[in-house]
What we know:
Elements: H1 10-23, E1 39-42, H2 52-63, E2 66-67, H3 68-75, H4 79-92, E3 95-96, H5 105-122
Antiparallel strand pairs: 1-2, 1-3
Helix pairs in contact: 3-4
Amino acid sequence: xxPRSGPGSATDETDSIVRLYAVTDGRTRARHRLSMHTVLxxxxxxxxxxxxxxxxxxxxxxxxxxxxxELAGTLDLHVAAVTVLVSDLIDAGALSxxxxxxxxxxxxxxxxxxxxxxxxxxxxxxTAKAG
Length: 131
């Protein structure tokens, strides 16, 4: 084995970066602002022509609601890549941001994420203007 071909080598790192680039079609930013703790559930639609990773995300979220970070860990993908995929799936209606029934700070944040996602779906070309 050459010194550059073992685990943790530059080759492994390059392969990982190339895979992330391919999974997200080169995008690095999600349309929706999502945290690692954002809980996701199934959406009302079943879109066609999804990538393998996107199909796995939808299947996992149809089993039960899951936080974004759990999806990343289960799929062995970087959180940033899963955030981009999840954002696309929210726009497609395949995933939703359910509002929890439990009062508290997490509920407030999740409610804001859900509201933001719904508004972006309803008004895709809208922009916020300050002042």
